[in-house]
Amino acid sequence: MDVDDINSITVLGAGNMGHGIAEVAALAGYTVNLRDINEEFVQKGYDQIEWSLNKLAEKDRISDDDAEAALDRVTTFVDAGESVADADVVIEAVPEKMDIKKEVYEAIDEHAPEHTIFATNTSSLSITELSEVTDRPKQFCGMHFFNPPVRMQLVEVISGEHTADETMDTIEALAEQMDKTPVRVRKDSPGFIVNRILVPLMNEAAWMVQNDYATVAEVDSTAKYGLGHPMGSFELADQVGIDVGVHVLEYLHEVLGDAYRPCPLLEEKVEEGELGKKTGTGFYEYEDGDGVQIP
Ligand code: 3HC
């Protein structure tokens, strides 16, 4: 399929990444079906798109008319089969667990048209393994956005072992249509490029605090003022979701070995349900899902 033949995009999962990807697709002019497992989750994702579009308009990054038109292009769904019935591309952004993702692909494969490309927003899992539960492994690749999708320029486009070159070309061109900068990842390896670098960095930052070498605020200051990162490692963990970081680390640990063992400090946060911005508390506290307060 050529990129010009893409009209309708289904985003599976309305969480942190899913709603942001749906927003990016709607802003690029696509008809978007946003699906999650119940009304409450999908409505929350829709509300977050509305919040974000209003924020972008408030800051003159887009016009009020563009914000309104983008929101009008988004329809919410709970039924997975219905949500993919007219999709040209499905972008899946459900929780970062192999079993959950496989279940989703098994549920939608027979309902999506034959030409539909499946693109997973997985942060680290094997594209090849996921593609093999579908009847369309050639039309399957990774399309990995960064948080918050509406502000981050990069999209990793990842080839699985079975991915056709045509699929890679189309998804790369789609990322460009969305005003993003795609980078092609040629080998399907755990964490791809960014998370192979980023998540161990977050883990090392956590070990520094775990072992009392420095405080959260001190480690974050070094990343910001010494390395020039826009956010400290703990601020970033809160931004992407501490649970997401831990899921990636667990997978890297399982596949690549002990160097990637998740730091208990991160695991404890997940056990306590303090996942970062999305729960209002992580390493920092947040008001209205935003605004950094005291460490
Ligand atoms: N939509 C619209 N507005 C948003 C937003 C969103 N999704 N998220 C935050 N904002 C708003 C804030 O509310 C804030 O508004 P306010 O000023 O009224 O309080 C405003 O944006 C802040 O934007 P600014 O441009 O003023 O601030 P910055 O220049 O600091 O930019 C940033 C914000 C782009 C998020 C920047 O801090 C940044 O680049 N941070 C690093 C993010 C990053 O590295 N992401 C990648 C993570 S890795 C990943 O996602 C992979 C995964 O697999 C783990």
From TrEMBL:
Domain of life, per lineage: Archaea
Q: What is the residue range of the signal peptide feature?
A: none
3-hydroxyacyl-CoA dehydrogenase NAD binding domain spans which residues?
9-188
Which ranges carry the 3-hydroxyacyl-CoA dehydrogenase C-terminal domain?
191-286
Protein family according to the UniProt entry: In the N-terminal section; belongs to the enoyl-CoA hydratase/isomerase family.
Put simply, this protein is called: enoyl-CoA hydratase
The beginning of the lineage is: Archaea, Methanobacteriati, Methanobacteriota, Stenosarchaea group, Halobacteria
Q: Which residues of the full protein are shown?
A: 1 to 295 of 659
